[in-house]
Every structure is written in structure tokens, then in C-alpha cells.
Amino acid sequence: MLTLFIGNKNYSSWSLRAWLALKASDVAFEERLLPFHTPEFAAAFEGLGSPHRVPLLVHDGVPVWDSLAIIEHVAERYPDKGVWPGDRAARAMARSISAEMHSGFPNLRRHMPMNLWRPVEPRAYGEDVGADIARVLEIWQAARAAFGAGGPFLFGRFSAADAMYAPVATRLRTYAVPLDPVSAAYVEAIHAEPNFVAWKAAGVQETWVEAHDEVDWPVVKRESAE
Ligand SMILES: N[C@@H](CCC(=O)N[C@@H](CS)C(=O)NCC(=O)O)C(=O)O
User: Where on the phi/psi map is residue 156: left (φ > 0), alpha (ψ -120 to 50), or beta?
Assistant: First the structure.
């Protein structure tokens, strides 16, 4: 039995990554949403030896934490589910860019937090954020050009690499970042992906507000409030 602990769907980009990868793999799992900064959140991690962070997967009593470790765990345990691309060169690139996402882009992540209910509005950014964005777009264009022929995602069909970059696609849209045509089409494909659509629909209904993820604070701009 698999249980995936996640945070608030509106804000928790790391939870979204693991959740999308699990959904795409079509492995049955139970989802448990832990609202941030609640006693319920802290209690869920007791005795597991993991950090108090989501996502956390518990598989037959064994805890696996950190989005990329969860993805690798699922890929190992369900090798026929196509978590990573089937082609070896594509898979090598998919793993590389997923690791790059996992360890990188701090300026972009800090300046443009995932916030699914924020109306699409530009946010000015400096050179450091611009450099992160330029690298993301370079990655997307390279993957699409080399391996994207079979579908709208980075390696054609949806893979763990798309799960890793989906929250970035939302940020680029939310903060109205100008995009080249290839990247714009990719952002569109992520926003049309049915699992993502379901996640966002749930996220924008939530009522918990995280001040540090609201860049217009103390104003909380919400699409539904318009
Ligand atoms: N490197 C971790 C990052 C996990 C992480 O930072 N999760 C955040 C939410 S997106 C968290 O649980 N924060 C705890 C809190 O805000 O109390 C991963 O890839 O899963």
C-alpha cells in the first residue's frame, strides 16, 4: 500500500511533482493532504525519521522522502510503468534535467513561488532570476527538439521530467514571463494535462493562506475573487 503525504495544493510545488509522477505511473495510492503549519502536519512525521517536509511516501510502512527519491523509488518498484522515458539517451537527459531542477534555480523559486490561484500578472525580476529562467527555457527547447516528437511533453509522452518542471510552468504563467513559442506550447501542455488540471482545481478551492508565498502580500490576489 502506498500513501503519499502532500502539502497545500495551491502552494506545494514539491508535493505536486511527486503526485504528478505517481498519477502518471498509474500506481494506486492514497493521498493525505497535510495543511502547512498545523498540528496535523507535524504529527504525520512522528517516528518516521524523515524531515518534516512533504512530499513523503510511505510504501508498505517504509518511508521515502524527497520528491526525486520518491520518483526513483516508484521507477524501481514499477519498472513497467514508464516513469522515465524508455529511450536510454532520453532517459539520461530526463534524469539530468530533473536533478538540475531539484538542486537548482533558487532565484526563480524564491522570487516566483508557486501560487495557483494568483491571477496572471507580471512581476518584475532581476538578472539572477532572468538567468534561471533562460536556463529553464534552454532545457525545454533542447528536450523538445531532441526527444519531443511523440507528444507535447519534454520527451514526447508525459514523464517524471515533466512532473519535475510542471511547477515551473505554472510560475512562468502566473508571473506572465515572456516565452518563446516552444516553451509557450509546453506551458500550455502542462496546463491541459488532466492530472494537473485536477490538482489545480482542488488547489484554488483551498482556504489556507501562506504569507511568504503571496508576493502581493498583504494583498492576496485570487482568480476566484475577481
Ligand atoms: N527537497 C525536497 C523539498 C521538500 C520541501 O521543501 N517541502 C516543503 C513544501 S513544498 C515543506 O514541506 N515545507 C515544510 C513547511 O513549510 O513547514 C523535495 O524535493 O521533496
Answer: left
Instruction: Give the number of the atom of ligand 1 that is nearest the alpha carbon of residue 37.
Output: 17
In the chain, the domains with their CATH numbers are 2-81 (3.40.30.10), 88-202 (1.20.1050.10)
Looking at the whole model, is its pTM more than 0.85? Answer: yes
The confidence score (pLDDT) of residue 127 equals 98
CA distance linking residue 225 with residue 98, whole number of Å: 35
**pLDDT tens-digit series, residues 90-148:** 999 999 999 999 999 999 999 999 999 999 999 999 999 999 999 999 999 999 999 99
Q: Centre a 10 Å sphere on the Cβ of residue 215 and count the other Cβ atoms it contains.
A: 16
By most ligand atoms within 8 Å of CB, the mutation choice from 37, 50, 54, 208 for ligand 1 is 54
Looking at residue 164, its pLDDT comes to: 98
